[in-house]
Amino acid sequence: MRKQKIVILGAGYGGLMTATQLQKGMGMNEVEIQLVNKNDYHYETTWLHEASAGTLHHDRVRYNIRDVIDRNKVEFIQGTVVEIKTEDKKVILEEGELPYDYLVVSVGAESETFGIKGLKEYAFSIVNVDAARQIREHIEYQFATYNTEVEKKEERLTIVVGGAGFTGIEFLGELANRVPELCKEYDIDPLKVKIICVEAAPTVLPGFDPDLVNYAMAQLERKGVTFMIGTAVKEATETGIIVGKGEDEVEEIKAGTVVWAAGVRGNSIIEKSGFEAMRGRVKVQPDLRAPGHEDVFIIGDCSLVINEEINRPYPPTAQIAMQQGIVCARNLLALIRGKELEAFKADIKGTVCSLGEDDAIGVAFGKKMKGGTASFMKKMIDNRALLMIGGPSLVLKKGKFNLL
Amino acid sequence: MRKQKIVILGAGYGGLMTATQLQKGMGMNEVEIQLVNKNDYHYETTWLHEASAGTLHHDRVRYNIRDVIDRNKVEFIQGTVVEIKTEDKKVILEEGELPYDYLVVSVGAESETFGIKGLKEYAFSIVNVDAARQIREHIEYQFATYNTEVEKKEERLTIVVGGAGFTGIEFLGELANRVPELCKEYDIDPLKVKIICVEAAPTVLPGFDPDLVNYAMAQLERKGVTFMIGTAVKEATETGIIVGKGEDEVEEIKAGTVVWAAGVRGNSIIEKSGFEAMRGRVKVQPDLRAPGHEDVFIIGDCSLVINEEINRPYPPTAQIAMQQGIVCARNLLALIRGKELEAFKADIKGTVCSLGEDDAIGVAFGKKMKGGTASFMKKMIDNRALLMIGGPSLVLKKGKFNLL
Hints:
Two copies of one chain form a homodimer. Helix content of chain A is about 30%, strand content about 25%. By secondary structure, chain A is α/β, with parallel strands linked by helices. The first copy, chain A, folds into two domains: about 5-40 and about 80-110 and about 265-350, FAD/NAD(P)-binding domain; about 115-260 and about 350-404, FAD/NAD(P)-binding domain. Chain A has a five-stranded parallel sheet with strand order 5-2-1-9-21, with helices on one face. In chain A, strands 11-18-12-13-14 form a five-stranded parallel sheet. In chain A, strand 13 (about 195-200), helix 6 (about 210-220) and strand 14 form a beta-alpha-beta unit. The longest helix of chain A has 28 residues, at about 370-400. The mean pLDDT of chain A is about 95. The interface of A and B includes residues 138 and 144 of A.
């Protein structure tokens, strides 16, 4: 009898968790597993803002996939997914085709530009390791260039961050810590540097406790961040951004660096492959399968799960992706063994938003926290992700131990 | 009686040596000394190629001027020279005016582009600390960007060095050592990187012993450098350079980075101030004064001294600038004391050209040397410059001790 083959697309939090859980739960030779990923490494998406600001080296936010999979049970294939042909039960890679019996789609998110002109061309997005280190180097180059020019362009020292959601705020916290180092490195007066956060919504960190939001804003403002709240980005240009001002007026903000951190959408592979989706996210069945597809699981940022308490979708997070990976692995084995599938239920243990190396705000175990306590909690959460996927040895290798 | 005032313009090798020698040789309250420099630091011009390649941090190639001058005897003024008004005996700075009784002009060199189109706009020159770290960051940014683009542009990984003289060859040596590090940092296949040296003359390092030149070329080629000798740069463009090929043909070399290292000229302040000069260099009297100016000494890269053995000018080097500084200080004191001035005589102890951290070629004390021996000698020469200007404590602070 031919062994059933599971193909997992993407080695982010969801995909890699599925793979490592499967290798633990499966019997010897029970099933064939192939894990496909563009790079040979997994990266901590939730740490990329640090690599982008230059406060943590990008090699600290990634590790080799082969180091956490059991190569006797999981075959790793480095490849780039182009499209999924569900009718033919195969995946088209840039490198060739891959047939499957069961498929796990965990291909992650893309930056969502909401059709705003110029963002794709002129703004950076914190989407992966390549992008993160390019942002770091771009900012460094702006600072390095400033003193070489006879006519000094102060806009080289202006960094605009579009969006005051989770990623935007966390990136601002790192930037505010990084700027004094950059000023020292390139002989620049810190007063000439501007960090501006532009957010269309009427508040930063929507959904967060207002006390904590006020604390976060005050801390970041103290470190030099300027907030323009209730201000929509109309366009990104070669020299900066154009924002709405009042009813009809617009204003240009000149900036050497624009980082767009105002939202993500599911991967465009989802629509390309014919799944019904909202912004690349598929409303999955309780068992995490795509409606109408008995053999396709969709987890992580491309899945949409409703939080029934408030009747709105959960935001895509690493926490949910990992929890889905665990259930997805169990359901795959159940399918193969002819058992019943279980329903996924998110268990939100807490949410902590970093404000830089030693500061944070958050809610965990139902308690509000800020400052050092929250920062400690954030690092514990970061280490926990490593623990869940790679075990204690990975925590020792890549964990965060600069605890207060 | 009013004290005579000596103003020294520039704190490079020549100017700083003059200042430190004066403070040693002068009597208490014998003379007033002002030292003017654009930055508050001195940098080792002969080490800038290392900072440019990124193999030595730019803070290692500079030190604070106030740390080596005796502030009871020498007043340091941070200022930028615009013009010298010899008839009025004053210097125009961007920040104001400075009268003098005796003037030392040691304002250093500028990059010489020989009127080649586009070089000023599109090529970098290794001229100072600001420029060096910009080159380092520009190259890093090219490497960081390569993997972020869907359509890979291999020219981002091409570095063209114009000129195979001293600076060009030393920079190539550092670059060749730096590229493997950059490839590791940015996940780039080293085979995709190109380092191309374009030189119009029929040989590299003209004037050097042919055996040593062959050794240098072989070593650099082994590390991945391609030489295009007898090839003239016709133009620099936004995308690379255009070189002559045969009689009338031209060829474009696409390159993300072009560094022009094919020559220097004296500072344009010289011509602006009405001194008779060839490419910014004044043929000074044997006592180092400018012809027709009893009160103006010109030393370093803006002075021209003939090597009578071959009836050609000495190339401008740190070695000669420092020797001139010593004689200039003695002649200034002689002038003030009404004594006779002495004639400067260059004493070339040797010339060593680095090929990277652990390799070099050179002639010192009449002996040819290469490899580790020459590299050791090079570091000793570098340390000697520190010793002569700042004494043993500066050698300990900034010296090169990674000796083989």
